[in-house]
Task: inverse folding
């Protein structure tokens, strides 16, 4: 099959002696289409060519996407397995590293039981690998302690969607429809910086007159173009959503027929939002009353609207509540399951959607099956060739794994495709945990902050050195192609799992020659589950520009628009929430009078382990900064460019001040992409959501001092 | 080539993908030739891209004593040719838009050439290809004309009038190459 896919009439620049490999970007959930330029003679990576005919992103790329290929043949790549001896990493052979892992893992499990090992996964990798992480933990290691970095990213959206719709698919509509929508309510998302290529869809709709309501404490590049910018205090989303629901009901914008037919719990919702009058909402959120009313009228009057949200509302101790409330706005307007309308979350990680469906979560098995459901356990055990009794019980969430390390239950950890030494909240607690571990193995292609704590670092391939599928933020399953053979001595993660499993005597469960074989098993594993991939094949993905799950058979067209007739709850009806106002985990006090919020900049991706090594991106944004309003700065006699000390009850750090009026005057914003002393996550609050176990990155109380 | 570069400053999100992409163009020696700047970061996050206007009668070429800046038959004002450029920097002072940059190590100027290796085949330059918000576009002359008429057209659609917050007062600009 051809490695280069292009539609008739589309022109790409084909240079002499080069070939183009069609694939997608390695970074965020947009999974922008791109071609990678490869030298035909030497097989070296030469650069990137836009993929104009990818229907979602039309060749558009952000600066991370343009420079993504520079990771592949980067001088910082880990070339051979590293073993820490006397505090220093020594290059070693694969055999030596794997033997050490085998010995340590066996020793620890014999002494402390199966559950002394743990696996910390990630979702910036293909479905095939994500699926195998779950199988590796449960079959090869036999431990119940497995969780993944999506807990710091998507789990509130998953929890909220499961509660409301009975199924968690990030978007209820294909994003190619967005340009036909009339109104966007975007909450807690700076999409212009975090998913830049999505902004074209909003502009196309705006060109036709669509309205944008953006909920964000800062006037971000997204909020700048909004018709109404609701600049709320961080951590007050549930109040604002309740206030909007109050107005939608009071002003008669409810699609009564839709609600009666397709939703439960309407009367309870009505009663619970009763108190959220515009005055009350304005006093809780700090947003001007008139703006709330204006937003409600615009949203209520739009015939087709999309409610969208991202980490801003999800990374809170009431993230699930926020998601259910914002989803309720779409439900009351009768928008879900229809053309160019619905509800969507901006998935942060490349395969954040696919990766969370396939059993990396502590309580889930492939295809969104529940580990607590005996039928699901029986089915998956059969696919995996083990006895149902051998299947480990549910474990604990990502942050709680550090608790288990601190109290001595977990003795060893295998971190795969993740960098929790930067991305955890209260990160010093995680550092202590890593130091306390008897044995830490990290798979990565750059020496991340987490890998520096490791006893063994295994060099993995980058995304362009292996093939597979990912699922983008729409729920569209797409194909990643191999551009070059693995560099140096690196191996793809799935091969590493196989090697370790073999040494632990479980080799027969991991007999794969290539990712396609994993995909075939994975299709069977998801068959009949909620996230059913069984009808999807590599060939169909190429032919149909990706296939939307659920797709239960090969003649099934896939499901671009979901919930058309009914929801996935047992009774087929959506559950409306009834949520009372609750303060965030930490509120400003006399000692810590300000609110600190964290977020991303366009030049960096997640923990920055990849993007902090790319020259262009580092030239644009080399260090974190404290962004604040000049009015706030003047109260402390601070000037632009000065160094300040920012503290929260957990820790403190020094930062440069960046002033702009395009933000609230009572908050401090710091981007989080850096590690060690530059890590703002030393300061963030690990207050967890009771359902999704999502930490509250987005709000904590803080103070600033002039240095 | 009957395409033009079309800029809508209002749309710029300041991501600098155009600059990263500029470095990717085959003839650009990994040096960007375009600019993205904040209007005034203290006041707003509005940014705008700036690139060579491909003048019909370019000041940079006029002031070049070595005749190093060539203009193609389509009207693209190329970067100075390696052999001819004497490194006098007249062009960097002559250009009213401050476009030509100067490489002090190589002692020569470099500037936007509309990715001539691409645009001569009617393939969009790298900056216009990747711009996520369509702030930079490489489009047909006719499409550009219809885009200019859009504001009036929008006023005709009842209920879809631009709001006062829309910054439509910034008239979309176009420049580039148009020959017929």
Result:
């Amino acid at each position: 099959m051809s490695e280069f896919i292009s539609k008739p009439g589309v022109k790409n620049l084909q240079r002499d002696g080069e070939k183009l490999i069609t694939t997608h970007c390695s970074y965020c959930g947009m999974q922008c289409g791109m071609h990678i330029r490869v030298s035909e003679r030497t097989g070296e990576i030469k650069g990137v060519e836009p993929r104009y005919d990818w229907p979602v992103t039309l060749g558009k790329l952000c600066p991370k996407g343009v420079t993504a290929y520079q990771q592949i043949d980067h001088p910082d790549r880990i070339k051979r397995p590293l073993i820490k001896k006397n505090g220093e990493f020594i290059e070693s052979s694969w055999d030596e590293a794997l033997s050490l892992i085998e010995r340590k893992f066996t020793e620890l499990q014999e002494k402390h039981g199966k559950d002394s090992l743990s696996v910390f996964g990630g979702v910036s990798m293909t479905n095939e690998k994500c699926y195998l992480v779950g199988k590796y933990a449960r079959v090869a290691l036999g431990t119940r302690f497995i969780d993944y970095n999506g807990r710091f990213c998507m789990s509130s959206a998953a929890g909220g969607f499961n509660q409301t719709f009975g199924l968690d698919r990030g978007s209820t509509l294909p994003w190619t429809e967005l340009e036909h929508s009339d109104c966007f309510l975007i909450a807690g998302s700076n999409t212009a910086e975090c998913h830049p290529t999505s902004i074209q869809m909003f502009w196309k709709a705006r060109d036709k007159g669509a309205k944008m309501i953006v909920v964000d404490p800062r006037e971000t590049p997204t909020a700048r173009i909004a018709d109404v910018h609701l600049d709320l205090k961080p951590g007050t989303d549930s109040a604002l959503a309740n206030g909007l629901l109050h107005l939608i009901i009071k002003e008669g914008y409810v699609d009564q027929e839709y609600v009666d037919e397709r939703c439960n719990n309407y009367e309870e919702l009505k009663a619970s939002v009763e108190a959220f009058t515009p005055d009350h909402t304005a006093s809780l959120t700090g947003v001007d009353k008139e703006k709330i009313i204006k937003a409600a009228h615009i949203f209520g009057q739009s015939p087709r609207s999309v409610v969208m949200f991202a980490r801003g509302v999800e990374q809170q101790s009431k993230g699930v509540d926020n998601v259910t409330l914002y989803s309720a706005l779409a439900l009351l307007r009768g928008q879900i399951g229809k053309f160019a309308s619905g509800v969507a979350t901006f998935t942060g990680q490349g395969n954040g959607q696919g990766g969370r469906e396939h059993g990396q979560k502590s309580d889930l098995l492939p295809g969104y099956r529940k580990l607590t459901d005996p039928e699901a356990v029986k089915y998956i055990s059969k696919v995996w060739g083990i006895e149902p009794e051998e299947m480990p019980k549910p474990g604990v969430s990502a942050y709680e794994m550090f608790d288990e390390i601190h109290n001595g239950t977990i003795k060893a950890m295998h971190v795969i495709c993740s960098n929790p030494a930067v991305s955890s909240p209260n990160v010093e607690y995680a550092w202590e945990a890593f130091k306390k571990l008897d044995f830490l193995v990290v798979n990565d292609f750059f020496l991340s902050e987490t890998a520096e704590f490791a006893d063994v670092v295994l060099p993995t391939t980058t995304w362009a050195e292996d093939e597979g599928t990912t699922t983008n933020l729409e729920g569209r399953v797409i194909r990643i192609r191999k551009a070059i053979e693995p560099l140096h001595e690196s191996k793809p993660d799935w091969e590493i799992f196989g090697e370790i499993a073999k040494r632990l005597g479980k080799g027969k469960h991991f007999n794969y020659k290539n990712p396609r074989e994993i995909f075939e098993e994975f299709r069977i594993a998801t068959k009949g589950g909620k996230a059913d991939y069984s009808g999807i094949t590599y060939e169909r993905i190429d032919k149909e520009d990706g296939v939307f799950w659920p797709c239960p058979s090969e003649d099934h067209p896939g499901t671009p628009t979901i919930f058309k007739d009914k929801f996935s709850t047992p009774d087929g009806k959506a559950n409306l929430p009834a949520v009372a106002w609750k303060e965030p985990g930490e509120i400003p006090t006399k000692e810590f009078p300000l609110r600190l919020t964290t977020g991303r900049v366009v030049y960096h991706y997640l923990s920055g382990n990849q993007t902090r090594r790319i020259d262009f991106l580092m030239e644009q944004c080399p260090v974190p900064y404290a962004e604040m309003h000049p009015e706030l700065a003047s109260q402390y006699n601070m000037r632009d460019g000065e160094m300040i000390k920012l503290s929260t009850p957990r820790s403190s750090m020094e930062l440069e001040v960046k002033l702009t009026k395009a933000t609230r005057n009572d908050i401090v914003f710091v981007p989080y992409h850096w590690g060690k002393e530059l890590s703002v996550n030393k300061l963030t609050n690990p207050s967890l959501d009771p359902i999704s176990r999502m930490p509250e990155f987005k709000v904590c109380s803080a103070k600033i001092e002039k240095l | 080539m009957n395409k033009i570069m079309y800029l809508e400053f209002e749309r710029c999100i300041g991501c600098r993908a155009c600059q990263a992409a500029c470095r990717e163009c085959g003839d650009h020696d990994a040096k960007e030739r375009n600019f993205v700047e904040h209007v005034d970061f203290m006041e707003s996050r509005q940014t705008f891209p700036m690139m060579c206007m491909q003048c019909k009668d370019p000041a940079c070429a006029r002031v070049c004593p070595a005749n190093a800046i060539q203009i193609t038959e389509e009207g693209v004002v190329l970067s100075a040719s390696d052999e001819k450029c004497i490194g006098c920097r007249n062009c960097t002072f002559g250009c009213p838009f401050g476009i030509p940059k100067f490489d002090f190590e190589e002692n020569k100027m470099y500037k936007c050439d509309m990715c001539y290796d691409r645009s001569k085949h009617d393939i969009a330059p790298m900056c216009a290809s990747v711009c996520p918000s369509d702030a930079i576009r490489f489009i047909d002359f006719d499409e550009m004309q219809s885009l200019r008429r859009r504001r009036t057209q929008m006023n005709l659609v009842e209920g879809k009038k631009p709001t006062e917050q829309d910054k439509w007062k910034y008239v979309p600009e176009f420049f580039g190459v148009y020959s017929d």
Chain A touches chain B through 48 residues (CB under 8 Å). Residues 94-112 of chain A form the longest helix (19 residues). The CA atoms of residues 36 and 705 of chain A lie 48 Å apart. The two ends of chain A are 62 Å apart (CA to CA).
